[in-house]
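Exam review. A common question shows you a sequence with its C-alpha cells and asks you to describe the fold in words. Practice with the pair below. Do the first one on your own.
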Amino acid sequence: MRELWEALCALPHRGSATAMEAKAADVLRGWLEARGHTVQSQPFKAPRSYGWELMLVSLLLALGGLLELWWLALLGAYAFWAHFGGGWAPWASLFDRHPSQNLISQAGTGDKTLVLMAHYDSAKTWFIYDPRRVRGFRANFLLNATLAFASPLAALLPWSGRLIGLYFLVQAGLLLWRELTAPYVGGANDNASGVAVAAGLFEQLARQVPPGWRVMLALTGCEEVGTKGALALARSGQVPRDALILNIDNVGRGALFYAVGEGMLGYRPYSGKLLEAARSLPGAQPLEYRLAYFDTRAFPEHACLSLIRLENGVIPNWHWPSDTAAQVRWEDVEQTRDYALNLINGLLHEHDEIPETL
C-alpha cells in the first residue's frame, strides 16, 4: 500500500485530464496488474480545471448586473447552481475536451456489490486555499451563492445589480489569472492517500471474496473538476442500484470522520448499511460534509459513505503546494485502512474472518 502511495507522490502532480494524470493511471494499472488483477480503462473527456466554467458563470452574472439584464443574471444564477449542485449544464461539452480515464478492477461474481472508490487526480491551487485563510472557504462560498442567487432581482434595482456585477467581473479576472499562472499541487493527501487505502483494501478482499459478493475498485479521474470520472462511471451502468459505495478521500492527516451526508448547496443525507455500520463502530466521528463535494455526488440514489480526515474543520494542505508526502502521517493512513476494514468486515464476511494485515 505504501509502495503505491510513494509511486504516486513521486509524480510532480496528477492534474485532471493532463499527461501527468495519464501517467498516474499507468502507475495504478501496473500496480494492480502486477498483483494479478484485470484492469478496465473507462475513457471519458473532461476539463483540466474548473476555472474556465466558473469564469463563464462569473461573466454571466457580471454582465447581467452591469447591463441590468435580469434574464442574463438568472442564467448566471442557474449556471452557478448547476456547477456546485451537480445539475444539468448544457454547455458542459464546451469544457469537456481533454481525455481522461477511470480504472476499474473487480473480484467475485455475487449479486451484491461493494464499490471501493477514490479519485487519483490532483487540483490547481488558488489563493483562497492558502492555509492562513482556508478556514473561511465556506463563508466565502456562501457569500458568492447569496450574491449569485440575488443577482436577477438586483438587476431590476438601481445600482445594486451593477455592484454585484462588478463583484463578479473582478472574480472572473481573478479566475483568469489563476488559469494562466497557478500550478497543480502534488496531492499526497488529496488523494494519493485515499487511492492507497482503496487499492490496498481491494487487494486484500480480492484474495477471498465471500459467496454472494462482488467487490469493485473504482479509481476515478477528474474528481477535482466536477466529479467527471464518477459521472462517467454512473452513466456506464456498471454500478448496480443496490451497490454499497465506500468513498475514501483525503485520509493522510487529521481526525477521521465518516460523512453522514454532503452538499455545498442542497444537502443530501446518506443512508444504508455502510452508514449503519459506521454509526456502531468506534474510531471515527460523524460529519455533515458541506465544505466541497465527493465523487459520491454522482450516485444520489445509492447507499454511500465517505471517509475523510480534517484538522480544525478543514482538509490539511487542501489544494496547496504544501500537499506533499512530508505532510502526510502514514500512521493515519494505516488507521484509516484498519477502520475501513472493520467497517466492511461485518458486511462481507459474516462467517469468515479477514486477515488483519495487508
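Now try the second one, then compare your answer with the model answer below.
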Amino acid sequence: MEAMESVDARRAVEELKELAALTGGPDGARRVCWTDEWAKARAWLREKLSEIDGVEVETDEAGNLWATAPGEGEAAVLLGGHLDSVPNGGWLDGALNTVAALEVLRVLAPQRRPVTLRLVDWADEEGARFGRSLFGSGAAAGALKPDDVRNLKDAQGVALPDALREHGVELDRVNEAGRQLENAVAYLELHIEQGPVLERMDLPLGAVLGTFGVERHAVRFTGQQAHSGSTPMDVRRDAFIAAARSAVAFRDDAARRDDVRGTTGFVNVSPGIVTAFNGWCEMSLDQRALDAGVLADMLRTARETSEGIAGEEGVSVEWAKLWEIEPIPFDEELIGLAEEAIAEVAGRSHRLPSGPLHDAAEMARLMPTVMVFVKSLRGLSHNKEEDTPEEDLELSVRALHGLALRTIDWAARRG
C-alpha cells in the first residue's frame, strides 16, 4: 500500500500535550485506570476518533476501546496502546502509543486498503490500582482468568469487581473480549524505551526483538545470630554476609553476559539490631533475558553460587519462586519491516529487547507482533521527569505510519 498522504506528526505531539494538560499536573499524569481521570482521557480519545469518517468505535467486555476502519478484507492489522498511567506518571508512557496510532488511523482510514485497520486502547496496562498489569490485553488473550483477580482490592479497600462495574465492566465476562481478535493478523505498538540504550547510542528509534523472560525468587539464608561483641569473626554464621556476597555474585554474573539483567531488590534481616549479627536474611533476585536457555543458565548459576557461598559462611540457603514468565520473541518479518520504517525516517535502526512487559507480550502469543522504541532521556519513566525530544517523537509517529503501511502490504500478500 502506497502512502497517499503522510501523517501530521506535529499534530500528534500537540495532542500529547493536550492530553497531559487535561489529565496531568505538577506531579505528573493522573490517568490511573478505573478512575475518573482515566475516564476523562477515554472521553477525550473518543471525541478525537469521532471526527474520523468511517471509523466505528466500541468498548469490549474487558473495557478495551476499539476503533475500526473497515478494509476490503476482514483481516485486521492492530495498532495498540494504553492511555492509563501509573500515579504521578510521565506524559508519554502508553499515551504516545495511542496518540500516534490515532494519527496513523486519521490518515489511513479514508484510504482504500486491502485489510482492515484497528486501533485498540487497552484497559489497565499498568495495573497501578489493583496490581494486575496487562488486564485488558490479558483478558482478550485469555491469559487473565476472573477467579485469579476476583479478590484484589485497592489501597482503600475497594474490590476490583466493584471498580470495574462502575465503568461498565463485569468481571465474569472479560474473556469475551477475545472475539475482538478473531480476524487480527498483526499487532504493532510504539512505545518509549523507558531505558537508556538508544540515548547512549545517540539513536532516536529502535526495533524491539521481544520482551525479556523473568525469573523472580526469594533467596533465604539461615545461620545463627549472636552478640556482635562477644563472637569472634572466624566462628560467625552470618546470614547477611552470605546474602551480600551472593548479591554481588549475581550482579557480576549478569554483567558478564550480553544484554541480560540481574537485580537484588529487597533485603530483610533478623534480628536487625546493631548489637548482633544476623542469623536470617531474605533477599529478592530478579533475572531477565530474551533467550530462554540463557535465563535458565543464569538461574542455575545463581543457585549453585549461593549454595557455595552458604557453605563457606556456615549457613543454609533456600529458594522460593515468586514469579516467572517465559521470554516472548517478536515476529522476525515484522522486525524487519520495523527496521525498514525506522531507517526511512531516521537513517539507522538498532535491535534491542524490552525489559518491561507490554500489551504486545500478550498479543505476541497469538499473532505476529512487533514494537518500535523511541529514546527516553536519561532512561527515565514512570515519573514526571519522563521525556523524549519532540523531534524524536515526530520521527516515531512517522515510523509507525511507515510500519503500518508495510504491514498492510505484508498482510495482503499473505492472503
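Model answer, second protein: The two ends are 14 Å apart (CA to CA). The chain has twelve helices and 16 strands. Full marks require stating both points clearly.
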